[in-house]
Amino acid sequence: MQVTKLGEGHAEVAIVGGIHGDEPCGIRAIERLLRDVPEVRRPVKLVFANEEATERGVRYVEEDLNRAFPGYPDGETHEKRLAYDLAHEIEGCRTLALHSTQSHAEPFAVVDGVDDFARAVCPRLPVASVVETGRFVEGRIFKAVPDTIEVECGLQGSEDAAANGFLLVLSFLTATGVLPGVAPARDTPVFRLVRRIPKGAANEYEVFVENFQRVEKGETYAAVDGETVVADEQFYPVLMSSSGYEDVFGYAADRVGYVG
């Protein structure tokens, strides 16, 4: 883990990239910020998280870091130990964690729940949607650093994801008072995850619907080895793709309102 601090004094804001080693957008966004270091109004920590996985070009070394929180100082895996160190490094910070996905090109935010922090900041980020994980926390960073907003910057490995990541960093730093200026707010829809969408073992998977677009009961939304899968109830797909996860297509969500 590599930590750079801008500004003097105790930092209460943090940016984290590289939680997954195969998602370079966050690290590239931080590196771009550091190429022309801005004058900050309050201190901020910039963190490259899983350096070893990033150097290897793999998602993780031994286990998914974003399923390893809160971690343990003498944990049995690299990521368990790293989760503990990262959580303690940014403890008490309002944090932006940058990710990318195989399922959706447009940036969106992910929060544990829409609390005062999320309500104040998310509408000021260049995201199209906000996703509440609800009960699907599963060892994510929220378990250890509750004032965290994750952002999916775009498609994994793309130039757009890196560019979006930089804009998200600037907007977050403005919204939290690290950079001068005013980040305008806008109404942003909120989706709450309600269940996983499983997929059985197969050779080929297909997805026929768009994330965040309503799927009606009876609509065909996927295929497994050519056999179609039909919705048994209405839902909004989130993080849904043919190859993003091993055992699920993604998640079904309800649209629950707006922030802004």
What does this structure look like?
The chain is an alpha/beta fold. The chain has two domains: 174 residues, Zn peptidases (Aminopeptidase); 59 residues, Beta Barrel (OB fold (Dihydrolipoamide Acetyltransferase, E2P)), CATH 2.40.50. The protein has five helices and 13 strands. It has a ten-stranded mixed β-sheet with strand order 1-3-2-4-7-5-6-8-13-12. Helix 1 links the parallel strand 2 and strand 3. Helix 1 packs across helix 5. The longest helix is centred in the middle third of the chain and has 17 residues. The chain is globular, with a radius of gyration of 18 Å. The mean pLDDT is 96.
Write the layout of secondary structure elements.
Elements: E1 2-6, E2 13-17, H1 25-35, E3 44-48, H2 51-56, H3 78-89, E4 94-101, E5 108-111, H4 116-121, E6 130-132, E7 148-155, H5 159-175, E8 188-198, E9 205-207, E10 220-224, E11 227-230, E12 236-238, E13 248-259
Helix pairs in contact: 1-5
Summarize the structure.
The chain has 260 residues and is of the alpha/beta class.
Structural class: alpha/beta
In the CATH scheme, what's the topology name of the largest domain?
Answer: Aminopeptidase
How many strand segments?
A: 13
Task: Name the beta content range.
Answer: 25-35%
Labels describing this entry:
260 residues; alpha/beta; Aminopeptidase; OB fold (Dihydrolipoamide Acetyltransferase, E2P); 2 domains; ten-stranded mixed beta sheet; three-stranded antiparallel beta sheet; 20% helix; globular; zinc; Succinylglutamate desuccinylase/aspartoacylase family protein; metal-binding; hydrolase activity; AspA/AstE_fam
